[in-house]
Amino acid sequence: MSEAGHDVIEGVRDLLPTLRDRAQETEDARRVPADSVKALQETGFFRLLQPASFGGLEADLVTFYTAVRLIASACGSTGWVASVLGVHPWQLALFPAQAQQDVWGSDPATRMSSSYAPTGKAGPADGGYRLSGRWSFSSGCDHAGWVLLGQLVTNAEGQPIDFRTFLLPASDYVIEDVWDTVGLRGTGSNDIVVADAFVPAHRSLSFTDVTKLCCPGHELNTAPLYQLPYGSVFSYSITTPVIGMATGAYEAHVSYTKERVRVAYGQKAAQDPFSQVRVAEAAAEIDGAWQALERNMAELMGHARAGTPIPMDLRLRVRRDQVRGTGQAIRAVDRLFENSGGRALKTGTPIQRFWRDAHAGRVHAINDPERALSMFGGGEFGLPVPVDAML
Description:
By secondary structure, the protein is α+β, with helices and mostly antiparallel strands. It has three domains: 3-109, Acyl-CoA dehydrogenase/oxidase, N-terminal domain (Butyryl-Coa Dehydrogenase, subunit A, domain 1, Orthogonal Bundle), CATH 1.10.540; 112-206, Butyryl-CoA Dehydrogenase, subunit A, domain 2 (Beta Barrel); 228-390, Butyryl-CoA Dehydrogenase, subunit A, domain 3, CATH 1.20.140. Helix content is 50%, strand content 16%. It has helices at 3-21, 23-29, 34-43, 61-74, 76-92, 97-104, 207-211, 230-259, 273-306, 312-338, 350-362, 369-380, and strands at residues 112-115, 120-125, 128-138, 146-154, 160-169, 174-176, 190-200, 204-206, 261-262, 267-268. The strands form three sheets. It has a four-stranded mixed sheet. The protein is globular. 50% of the residues are buried.
């Protein structure tokens, strides 16, 4: 870990008590407080994956995921928003240099939200594209000046000819407040509405280029960090907050259980051997998820630094371990919740909040285990796996 990355981690650690104290406020407001985002900005967190060409730290991915895990261990919603907003500088680094200049040229601290499901309409236009429609689940959009939107591009006959990510400034879209959920309530994952906006060609990026690891931004940003598969980097940015929520639930549960007395059995809960077993099981699940992340990121970065192609079996294993990591975190949270007793149900307690937040994070499309596991199994049997299926 670089000295700059270490300083960010320490800054995030210092911020955890404040984020923990604001967790209920965040949930009640249905968005992360602006003061929390500002405080994270001041630690340097949002610069971790930003290219050095625009003042970023170009930190290694484990440093970024470690910071996300810490944040989510204090407040699940804040951790989720931090991870999603924090990974977007990595993606923007793949765009043409002019797009990066458009966003960061006057303010390197500018943030982007996103929504990738292609629920709108896009077609070619002179010098770019016309885009319109509604995109949902744009976490942290209230704290962003730009948005990244995924969309199929169709020709005049309505046939799809490309799948691209479009980059739009806030002046080109409207945020509709629709976010009212049982989990991750504080993420402000509202809808983005676009009414026939023109997007210059340089503010779009084809997923074909992304999956081939051959993007326009690579000419400017040559660091190994930007030579990694999108499907590996982004998918773990969704799993890591869930691991963080499980970590926070574990810490809260252990602290609570040390003082809890189980009246029905006439003993302290900490003395119950079955309670001890459940805690051990939860700890093993969390550790296993994190150790797989560290191993996979080390191997990916090893190939990127050496300039060698990233093997398909590694890309498949990363996605396998990513969805398994989410599942392990969910099992840990469930075990802890089951072991916490009826008082943990009270509104405002951290255990029930982490339980709801983790399960809400689980339903993100990239956490669907069957698809990723089927791809891995097919690869093991020698069956062809389309590289774009990794996204």
